[in-house]
Amino acid sequence: MHLLLPAAGVGRRMGSDRNKLLLPLIDRPILAWTLDAAIAASSIDWIGIICQPVDRSDFEQIVDQVLSQHQRPTPVEFIPGGDTRQASVYNGLQALPAAATHILIHDGARCLATPDLFNRCAVAVRQVAGLIAAVPVKDTIKQVNAQKIITHTPDRAQLWAAQTPQGFEVEWLKRCHRRGQQQNWQVTDDAALLEKCGVPVSIVEGEETNLKVTTPVDLAIAQSILQQRAKA
After folding, report:
1. Are the C-beta atoms of residues 180 and 86 closer than 8 Å to each other?
2. Domain range spanning residue 40?
3. Are 124 and 104 in contact (CB under 8 A)?
4. Residue 147 located in a structural domain
5. I want to staple 81 with a disulfide (CB 3.0 to 4.6 A). Which of 1, 70, 88, 223 is the partner?
6. Is 181 left (phi over 0), alpha (psi -120 to 50) or beta?
């Protein structure tokens, strides 16, 4: 299975002057934790890291360190990032090996995903055009208008919180990306492109701990989760 890791963002909400994936989490950078789980997943045969040129040398060092800790030689390639996540993934799709028929896309900042989650998504994606990892929403969600007045309370039983990995048949995703460019669609994840094209997207049960490190609070939570795992 081929895996793309979008890692080209600047992480302004983290309040850092560098790519947040370079920030330390316990004893190594955030990206190292993400890579470690991906390489440990038996289903992942190739990894493409989508990043900005300014970060490449730092990322190369991280990749070398992580690969040295694994006996399985997983090819890792670097792909230039775009101005948006959508543009970055498009670049990643163009850089896929010709043999790639299915793809997983995982946010580099979701550093707590386990090898089991990667493997389950890799198995499931071969049966559908598209899927996302997701977990049922626990909180009651309120829809509000511009004045912050509640306009609707959706049924919680029908709500799931989207995560990554997200998986797709490569040709379907390329087709939807091209249409998105033609229609000037701006989306925050690849599943939304398939939805706009009328392609059904399935759910794979995600993991409660699979949070995206976006703010300093998220970083503290991730550290706590990793420390608990180390004690288990």
Report:
1. yes
2. 2-132+164-231
3. no
4. no
5. 88
6. alpha
Alpha-carbon distance 131 to 118, whole Å?
12
- Is 139 within a domain? no
Q: How many domains does the chain have?
A: 1
- Per-residue tens of pLDDT for the chain, all 232 residues: 999 999 987 666 666 678 999 999 999 999 999 999 999 999 999 999 999 999 999 999 999 999 999 988 899 999 999 999 999 999 999 999 999 999 999 999 999 999 999 999 999 999 999 999 999 999 999 999 999 999 999 999 999 999 999 999 999 999 999 999 999 999 989 999 999 999 999 999 999 999 999 999 999 999 999 999 988 7
- Domain of residue 100, CATH code: 3.90.550.10
Q: Is 110 left (phi over 0), alpha (psi -120 to 50) or beta?
A: beta
Q: Name the pTM for this structure.
A: 0.94
Q: Which two tokens stand for residue 202?
A: 């399935």
User: Six-digit token pair at 98?
Assistant: 């010709």
Q: Is 137 a domain residue?
A: no
- 140 found inside a domain: no
Q: In residues, how long is the chain?
A: 232
